[in-house]
C-alpha cells in the first residue's frame, strides 16, 4: 500500500474511531437510563408516593439532556461511510441499507410520539398512559440499536450472504440468518446489558455524590437501591453473554482471541492472563517472551474457548504461519489463495467486458473456490493479519477487570441499604462516584476490543480496511477529523455543563 | 373527530411553550443539525459514488476496478 493511501486509511480509521467513541458516550446511557426511569416511574405508579415522581422526573431530565446532546451523532458515521468508506459502503449496501433506513424511521416516529408524552404529558396524560409511554421510549430506544449491532455482528462474522461479482456486492441470502446469527445476538445482548450496567453506575455515581454532599439523601438512597439491583442483574447477564461471545470469537475470529490474551504460541491447557505487562518488542515468529510480567490461571483460556480445560487454543503464530499438526491454515497460505481469488475476479471482469463467456465462467469457477480467502489476497505479508496486540490485550483486561469489580460495588450498596447504613459509609459513596467514570472506561474499552481486535478487517477475512476505504486526499480526511474533534469537544463540554448545573439544582427543579 | 388533531396540536404547542431547560437543548440540537447537514454534509461529506457516477452499473464497475487493481498490475 502506498504511503498516501496508508495515510488516508489511517486518518479515516482515526476519524471513524473518534466519531464512534464519541457516539458511544451517549448511547449506552440512553439505552440504560431509559429503563431505570421506567422502573422509577413504575414504582411511583404502584406506591402513589409523590417523592418517587420527583425522583423519576429528576432522572428523566438527565436522560433528556443526554439524549438531546447525543441525538444524531450516529448520522455522522453514515456520512463517513459514503465519503471515506465508499467501497465498503457499496459492497454491503444490499445487506444494511434498507433495514437501517426502516429502523431510523421507526425510531423517529416512536420518539416523536412517546418522547413527547414522556416529557410534556405529566399533567395531560393519564398516569398509566404516561408510564406506558416511558416504557415505550425505553423499549424503542433499545430496539433502535438492533440493526446497527446486527450489522456490526455481520462484519465480524459474515454469514448468509453471497458475493455478486457483477455488482461487486455482498447480497443477503437469508434475512433471519443474518439477524439471528450468534455473533449478532451476542453483540446486541452484551451491548444492551453493559449499557444497563453503565446507566446503573451513572445513577449510583450521582446518588453517591448527593450522599457525600448530604443532599437529597432519600432520593439518592432510593435511586441507588434500584440502580444496584439492575446493575447486579445486568452484570451477571453481561458476564454470561460475554463468555458466550468469547466462545464464538474463539471459533469465528481466533486471531482476535489470541490478541485479547497475548497468546503467541498455541497450546493445550491454555492459560488466561489475569494480569500482565505485554513485551512491546514482541513480534509474531520471534523467540522473545510475550510478557514482561504475567499472572496466569492455567487451563482457563481453553475452557473459555472450547469448554474443555485441556483443549488446544491456537496462538498468533499458528494463525499467521499455519500449524499442519493442528490442521490450522495460516494467513501465509490464505494470502496465496486470496491472490488467486483477486486474480480470477480480474479475469472474470475482463472476460465479461470482451464478451468471452467461457473465459468468464472458468474464471468465476476458480474464483468461487478461493472466495472465502478474498480479503487475504490484499495482504502483502502474513503478519499484516495480526491486530495491534497490546491495545487489544489491555482494553480487554480493563473491561473484564472493571466488569468484575462493579458487581462487588453493587453488592456492597445493597448490603448497606439492607442494613440502613448507606449514608454512613462515605467511602462507598466515593467509590460509587468514581464508578460513574469507570463505567465509561469499561464501556469504551469493550468497543476497542471489538473493533481493534478485528483489524485489519472491515469484513472479517473478506475485506481489509485498506480496500474498504476511498482513495481521497489524506489532507481532507485530516481536516474533517479536527473539525469533529472541536465540534465533539464543544458538545461534550456543553453536555457536562448542563448536566452539572441540573445536578446542582437537584430534584426540586 | 376534529377535536383530536386540535388537541394533539395543543399538546405539542403547550409542551414546547412550557419548556425551560428544553429550550437550551433544542437550540443545541438545531445548531448541531445545521452544522452537520448544512456545513459538514454539504461541503465535506459528499457521497463519492453518488457524486462521481451516474448509474449503479458505473458504481459497480468502479468498485470492481478497486477490488482487482492489485491483480491487474
Automatic annotation (TrEMBL), chain A:
Record-annotated membrane-spanning stretches: 20-45, 57-76, 96-120, 132-155, 195-212, 224-242, 394-418, 430-450, 470-494
Cell location: Cell inner membrane
Signal sequence extent: none
Pfam families: Cyt_bd_oxida_I (PF01654)
UniProt keyword terms in alphabetical order: Cell inner membrane, Cell membrane, Electron transport, Heme, Iron, Membrane, Metal-binding, Transmembrane, Transmembrane helix, Transport
Keyword Cytoplasm: no
Top-level taxon in the UniProt lineage: Bacteria
GO biological process: aerobic electron transport chain
InterPro entries cross-referenced by the UniProt entry: Cyt-d_ubiquinol_oxidase_su_1 (IPR002585)
Example of a GO cellular component annotation carried by this entry: plasma membrane
Membrane topology label: Multi-pass membrane protein
GO molecular function term, any single one: heme binding
Family membership: Belongs to the cytochrome ubiquinol oxidase subunit 1 family.
Protein's recorded name: Cytochrome ubiquinol oxidase subunit I
Provenance organism: Geomonas silvestris
Name of the gene: cydA
TrEMBL record, chain B:
Species, as recorded: Geomonas silvestris
Protein name, per record: DUF4492 domain-containing protein
TM ranges: 25-44
Keywords attached to this entry: Membrane, Transmembrane, Transmembrane helix
